[in-house]
Amino acid sequence: MYDYDLLVVGSANADLVIGVERRPAAGETVLGSDLAVHPGGKGANQAVAAARLGASTALLARVGDDGHGRLLLDSLRSAGVDTVGVLVGGAPTGVALITVDPSGDNSIVVSPGANGRLTPEDVRAAGSLFHASRVVSAQLEIPLETVVAVASSLAPDSRFVLNPSPPRPLPAVLLAACDPLIVNEHEAKVILGDSAIGDDPEDWARILLAKGPRSVVVTLGAEGALVASKDGVSRVASVKVDAVDTTGAGDAFTAALAYRLGTGASLEEAAAYAARVGAAAVTKEGAQVSFPTAEEVDAL
Ligand code: ADP
Questions:
Q1: In a mutational test of the pocket of ligand 1, which residue from 181, 220, 240, 246 has the highest number of ligand atoms less than 8 Å from its CB?
Q2: Which ligand 1 atom minimizes the distance to the CA of 248?
Q3: Strand order of the sheet with strand 86-88?
Q4: Ligand 1 centroid, distance to 291 Cα (angstroms)
Q5: 251 in catalytic set
Q6: How many A from CA of 292 to the centre of ligand 1?
Q7: Partner of 106 at 20 to 30 A CA spacing, among 41, 169, 173, 211?
């Protein structure tokens, strides 16, 4: 018996957002809007997205012993995430300093802080969480060696889902553990590197699959997604919605897909559900606050 549908291993950040008329040049100061502070980071986002859908969810992460860390713990708990695996201390909570200009373009500086201190030893010490989890998901906002340790800590029957964001070339041992590897177009191109020939995402899906994952999902924004496995490549239709803000769509998609796989859905079924969750998330401003409940997904 598993206690958790999903264990997320990843980052937790405070997003500090200021609206500006224009970006400052070197040596210059500009005045901006009031500061808005939001809970974020891909790990925390995925955990909140899954819990809001009703998944029994735990997060393994590290935050600082500070106000931002407490903000994150509060938002995780109020979404229903089990925070027993959220370690505290060692460095300040990770922060994303975000300026947004009137056209909506972002400039972002990330200080990984405590996320960079989540170690392979932390993963090994959390063995009981791994043994209690049907599916484990990760991203790349924590050290790569920690993600490699995650892939080698899975319970015998559990499944590993990786969204390699921010993207970088991946070691073969990590690729081989992914079932699926979930990438958007930008991530696909970085991971494929020189082998990204042409503009056809179906080709990227096939070439990615040949690099070792048991399955691959390529997300295509408003165009939906592609699913690739040994059975071939199939397309997952998107749901037509009025998109307001696409922040966090990929995190909501990955969380939903990982959760549904654990309930016994096929990869195609799980991706179709995830596409509905991603679509619901883009109809609202923000990341975590835009993630739908299961009822909201059904109503879409
Ligand atoms: P990321 O946020 O990682 O760039 P995508 O933009 O590909 O990821 O979005 C993830 C998924 O969310 C898509 O595969 C799709 O199912 C859904 N989605 C994203 N944008 C839209 C949109 N404008 N309309 C409908 N669905 C969307």
A1: 246
A2: 2
A3: 86-88, 57-63, 4-9, 133-138, 159-162, 181-183, 216-219, 225-229, 232-236
A4: 13
A5: yes
A6: 14
A7: 169
Report the separation in Å between the CA atom of 184 and the middle of ligand 1, taken as the mean of its atom positions. 9
pLDDT of residue 16: 96
**For the chain, where are the E strands, in sequence order?**
4-9, 13-19, 36-40, 57-63, 86-88, 94-100, 106-111, 133-138, 159-162, 181-183, 216-219, 225-229, 232-236
- The residues lining ligand 1, judged by C-beta closer than 6 Å to any ligand atom, are 184, 219-222, 224-225, 238-239, 241, 243, 246, 249-250, 253, 275, 278-279, 282
CA gap 189, 231 in Å, rounded: 23
Asked whether the beta carbons of 37 and 276 are under 8 A apart, the reply is no
Residue 86: partners with Cβ closer than 8 Å, 6 or more residues away: 12, 59, 60, 61, 62, 63, 72, 73, 76
Report the Cα–Cα distance between both ends of the chain, in Å, rounded: 32
Per DSSP, the residues of 174-196 read: HHHH-SSEEE-HHHHHHHHGGG-
* Ranges of the chain with pLDDT below 50: none
Ligand 1 atom 5, closest CA:
221
For residue 165, the ligand 1 atom closest to its alpha carbon is 3
pLDDT for position 246: 87
**Domains by residue range for the chain, with CATH:** 4-21+32-299 (3.40.1190.20)
- Angle at 273 (CA atoms; ends 267, 278), nearest 5 degrees: 115
- For ligand 1, atom 23, name the residue with the nearest CA: 222
Evaluate if pTM is beyond 0.90: yes
